[in-house]
Design goal:
855 residues; mainly beta; 12% helix; 57 strands; seven-stranded antiparallel beta sheet
């Protein structure tokens, strides 16, 4: 040490030595102007004449001085002593280097992630300024006594000129864009492969060095080492470090994958930014311990939405729609803190909290593109894409494994079977697990899955996978496993309602609540309640409910005039919900129209029918605009205003357009479309679902319905009297022009067949595919118009020739604007093929919110 105590460097008084290194000597000093102790790093005068050493020293000072971040050493001043020796003044730190800490062995995963996250955040700040460190190692990372990590020594930092669009600019002069050919800079053991080769080292080089440090923090040994520097550098270029699982059996697999991602030999295959790295470390902060142990979660602060200004700001953020609804229990609405996560145009298809309870993993189809998996955080701005097309998030395990449903097509519906696969929380290629899976959820310990399959026309619940607990020809949806792993709650559909069922591992079932349809279920972490969302048919909108697993009284948590879907419930009480505003539009096209015409009237035109001449359209409005019982409208296809015909659900028009079948409160009625009185049509014990006249008849009716407890069938009904006569099992279908045959989809087989109206054996339709339904029979009896009922938009309608089984594409149906579009269905085609009409269901808005304070 060359400076004695009491020596002055400018205004600073040397108090004593701290240490020395290749880049200079460090002293503790006093700054009398601010009455504070500082650290001063001095380049010895004997070396100040070395131009390269001097340039690098000044570069360190300027680089660090340009940064202002809690995880980077703060630089206060730069000067030159009387002997010409330059010095830099920095904050004085109390604590130890990471190297000193590692001398005692590896760190706990939780502590390692804490330090790693701080390092990544500091690097991100430096990289945003165009500064690359190039010499990250444990000696250059300082741990303060209050647990903060500080990055030291930017003496080897390389400055690159940031692009104008890359963020804030720096005034630091641009250094040489790379090292001299063949010159290796950095510290052996922590260098990136490109540094070893003497190639250009950008910010991704720091990410590799970061990976070596995180590896050492977790394992207690260096990632790359050899008996000599040459052997160590050879290992960096050619070898992978030993598996972390061999050195730390409590390490979460997702954390091991993160380290591997940092240590890719090819820079293009690493994390591409320290910001993304920090993002994923935050997501892993809850999975750093053993996968079988629930990490401790600190309660979130409750931030009430108070003062009218805050409520107004929230309303503006969700496009002016007041959707908070009302609280039925647990305090006033103002107790809630609501954070919006998504802002794009499209449709959300599912979501779950990551193990840190802050990050959200969700799937969505934005701007009409195929669905993908994304990561988002409250206040985190734009979501991060996984780049996995046609995927839907099903569940996230405690160890960070994401269960997804991979579809063959770009389907944006919830209930479609596909391939169950697993992907890392940090991203990567999906690993297929099972086929024909509709839904799945991880058990609390992350070791088992409860799954819902669709096979042979039945829906099956298995828990664990392979053990059948329930099966039904109707839907099973939204499985949720109890916190102790002993029971599964799920929604089980029937003919006219949906039940919330709890089933234990032995298959013992108990119905605890009813829902009209579309219930979405989660289990409260306390295990004392099951929370679920469901529509409110009487009042409109939706609500969140809580019911006890034993089937006790249900309580209402929250009501909303919009459609809310409960997606997840964190251990701290935070709730993940999707808010959706939907609309179902009606599109018509005639022979003289160059393009389709939107003939929608209110918000949800569910069913429609065309007169034979294509001039009149019957619309059943079943949304909020239609009222509690629904409303039936007549509208001319020229676009003139609609006329309200009746309450109920409109079924079909007579061929001449003068009569309309309507179902109201479970009864079939025949309404004149002009003057006259409606009359009830007796259907015996058959509950009507659909009705239409046979071709060329004003008395004979094709009735679709079911008897109590029986599946749906097609029936022949004579308006002159008599009971309905069953003619074919199934629902969707069409009658031949001569009225002698009917083509019907048999629901349990998901395939259409031809039946004789007078009875007899069914016969297969040549060339028909599983999943196809018949929309119409051509007027010459030669063709069937068919399409796949589960095909996502656009819907391809084919003409199928009955004699040969040959098919040809007739129309591709979908609106030109496909953002938020999730279904094209209820296709009606005239027998001559000149007119058609179909429904298009879309999410006008679909967004994710995290809600705090619900209880």
């Amino acid at each position: 040490m060359t400076l004695a105590t009491g020596t002055k460097l400018g205004p600073y008084e040397i108090l004593g030595p701290i240490g020395a290194g290749g880049m200079g000597e460090v002293y503790k000093a006093r700054d009398p102007r601010f009455q504070r102790d500082v650290a001063i790093k001095v380049l010895p005068a004997s070396l100040a004449s070395d131009g390269d050493r001097l340039r690098r020293f000044e570069q360190e000072a300027r680089a660090a001085g340009a940064l202002n971040h809690p995880n980077i050493l703060a630089v206060h001043d730069l000067g030159t002593g009387e002997d010409g020796a330059p010095y830099v003044v920095a904050e004085l730190l109390e604590g130890e280097t990471l190297r000193s800490r590692l001398s005692g062995g590896p760190l706990t995963p939780r502590r390692a992630i804490d330090y790693a996250l701080q390092i990544a955040q500091g690097l991100s700040a430096a990289h945003d300024k165009g500064i690359v460190h190039r010499d990250l190692k444990p000696e250059n990372l300082f741990l303060t006594e209050d647990g903060r990590v500080k990055i030291l020594d930017f003496g080897l930092a390389k400055l690159v000129e940031p692009e104008s669009s890359a963020g804030q600019q720096t005034s630091i002069p641009t250094a040489s864009p790379g090292t001299e050919p063949g010159v290796v800079m950095g510290t052996v053991g922590y260098m990136s492969p490109e540094q070893v080769k003497g190639q250009t080292a950008d910010h991704r080089s720091d990410i590799f060095s970061f990976g070596t440090i995180l590896y050492e923090m977790l394992s207690g040994r260096r990632a790359f080492r050899g008996d000599s520097a040459v052997e160590t550098m050879s290992a960096i270029l050619k070898e992978d470090p030993p598996d972390l699982s061999a050195t730390n059996r409590n390490l979460a697999p997702a954390l091991d994958r993160l380290v591997r991602h940092c240590l890719e030999k090819n820079p293009a295959q690493r994390f591409q930014s320290a910001r993304d790295l920090a993002y994923d470390l935050e997501a892993l902060s809850g999975v750093s311990g053993t996968p079988s142990a629930l990490p401790a979660i600190a309660p979130k602060s409750r931030r009430p939405l108070w003062l009218g200004l805050a409520v107004a700001a929230l309303a503006a953020a969700i496009a002016g729609t007041y959707w908070l609804g009302s609280r039925r229990s647990g305090g006033a609405q103002a107790d809630l803190a609501i954070h919006r996560l998504t802002f794009r145009r499209g449709i959300v298809l599912g979501g779950r909290f990551a193990p840190d309870r802050k990050t959200v993993v969700y799937s969505a189809a934005w701007e009409g593109q195929p669905s993908d998996v994304f990561l988002a955080r409250p206040g985190g701005g734009e979501s991060k894409s996984f780049g996995i097309p046609n995927s839907r998030v099903l569940s996230v395990s405690r160890s960070g494994s994401v269960a997804v449903n991979l579809r063959k097509e770009a389907a944006v519906r919830w209930y479609i079977k596909g391939t169950l696969a697993e992907i890392p929380l940090l991203g990567g290629s999906p690993r297929p697990i099972l086929e024909d899976v509709v839904d799945a959820v991880w058990s609390p310990d992350g070791k088992e899955l409860a799954i819902v399959r669709e096979t042979a026309g039945k829906h099956v619940l298995e828990y664990p996978a392979g053990k059948r607990l329930d099966e039904t020809p109707f839907l099973i949806d939204s499985p949720a496993i109890s916190p102790d792993g002993r029971s599964v709650a799920y929604a089980r559909s029937g003919l006219d309602k949906e039940e919330i069922v709890v089933c234990d591992r032995a298959g013992q079932k108990k119905t605890i609540a009813d829902s009209p349809y579309d219930a979405s279920i989660v289990w409260h972490p306390s295990a004392r309640e099951i929370w679920y969302s469901a529509p409110r048919l009487e009042a409109g909108g939706s609500a969140l409910y809580a019911a006890t697993p034993s089937g006790g009284a249900r309580r209402t948590l929250w009501t909303s005039p919009d459609l809310l879907t409960l997606l997840d419930l964190a251990s701290d009480g935070s709730v993940l919900v999707e808010r959706r505003a939907v609309r179902r539009s009606v599109y018509f096209r005639g022979p003289d129209q160059p393009e389709e015409r939107d003939l929608s009237w209110l918000d949800w035109g569910l069913r429609f029918s065309l007169s034979d001449d294509g001039s009149t359209l019957l619309i059943a409005e079943m949304g909020v605009g239609g009222g509690q019982k629904g409303a039936v409208f007549l509208r001319r296809t020229d676009g003139s205003a609609a006329i309200r015909l009746a309450e109920g659900t409109g079924m079909s028009l007579s061929p001449d357009g003068r009569l309309a079948f309507v179902v109201l409160e479970g009864k079939l009625r025949l309404h004149p479309t002009g003057a006259g009185q409606p009359r009830d049509i007796p259907t015996g014990d058959v509950q009507p679902i659909d009705a239409e006249f046979f071709p060329g008849s004003d008395r004979r009716v094709r009735l679709v319905g079911h008897q109590p407890g029986q599946p749906i069938r097609n029936w022949a009904l004579d308006l002159g009297g008599g009971k309905p006569r069953p003619i074919a099992d199934g629902s969707q279908g069409a009658i031949s022009p001569d009225g002698k045959l009917i083509a019907v989809r048999v629901d349990r087989e998901d395939k259409s067949y031809i039946f004789s109206v007078e009875g007899g054996d069914r016969r297969e339709i040549p060339g028909a595919h599983v999943g196809e339904i018949v929309h119409q029979w051509s007027d010459d009896g030669r063709w069937l118009y068919v399409s796949n009922r589960l095909e996502p938009p656009p819907r391809h309608v084919h003409r199928l020739e009955l004699a040969t089984g040959q098919r040809e594409l007739w129309k591709t149906l979908a609106p030109s604007d496909r953002a938020g579009l999730f279904a094209v269905d209820f296709i009606r085609i005239s027998r001559d093929g000149r007119f058609y009409v179909y429904g298009a269901s879309r999410a006008v808005s679909s967004d994710l919110f995290v809600v705090e304070g619900l209880r």
